[in-house]
Amino acid sequence: MKSGKQRRTEIQVQRAEQRDDAADAAAKLRLDERARNAKLANGEKARELALVSKRLHVNPANLGPNVSWGWPEFVHRGYYVDQPFSCRACGKEQVWSATQQRWWFESAKGDVWTVAVHCRTCRIKERERKNLARRTHLEGVARKRSDGA
Ligand SMILES: [Zn+2]
Questions:
Q1: Which residues surround ligand 1, an ion (CB under 5 A)?
Q2: What total number of domains does the chain contain?
Q3: Is residue 19 part of a domain?
Q4: pLDDT in tens, 79-121
């Protein structure tokens, strides 16, 4: 038969063990959380790195003319970013993509201070209108010449 004192000691030991278990569980939880946060941070870092490596960097040597003082924002920033705008002619919401900008400034040598104002459809329409006007003008000139001869 166990004495009352023995029984009390056993209960105290049991409780102490339970407290230790709870403390261990809490510590494990904290470790798990730290590991999860570290994993998230690594994922975030990897995503950031992927974004950085996808950036279209400005190559200043390729830029077209700059007749104004200073340089526009994208040159200071060092890379192109997609730019939303609404078409001046039809009002359609558009994005002037980083790729299109790089082509415009570095391949087409567009003035560094110019920005897209018309959507693709309206640009094509405008070009056709100008071509037609030029053709009509040239035909008129040719007709005048042949009339005079
Ligand atoms: Zn348009």
A1: 87, 89-90, 92, 119, 122
A2: 1
A3: no
A4: 999 999 999 999 999 999 999 999 999 999 999 999 999 999 9
Does 22 reside within a domain? no
Number of neighbouring beta carbons within 10 Å of residue 105 = 22
Using the mean position of ligand 1's atoms as its centre, give its distance from the Cα of residue 90 in Å.
4
**119 touches 94 (CB < 8 A):** yes
Distance 126 CA to ligand 1 centre (A): 10
Cα–Cα separations (whole angstroms), residue 74 to 26, 97, 141:
50, 13, 45
In a domain, 101, yes or no: no
The neighbouring-strand residues paired with 56 are 80
CA of 113 to the centre of ligand 1 (A): 21
Q: What is the largest CA-CA distance in the chain?
A: 139
Report how far ligand 1's centroid is from the alpha carbon of 80 (Å).
23
Per the prediction, the chain carries an average pLDDT of 91
Report the alpha-carbon distance of residue 146 to residue 138 in Å, rounded.
Answer: 12
Q: Residue 144 sits in which domain range? A: 119-149
Q: Is 93 within the bounds of a domain?
A: no
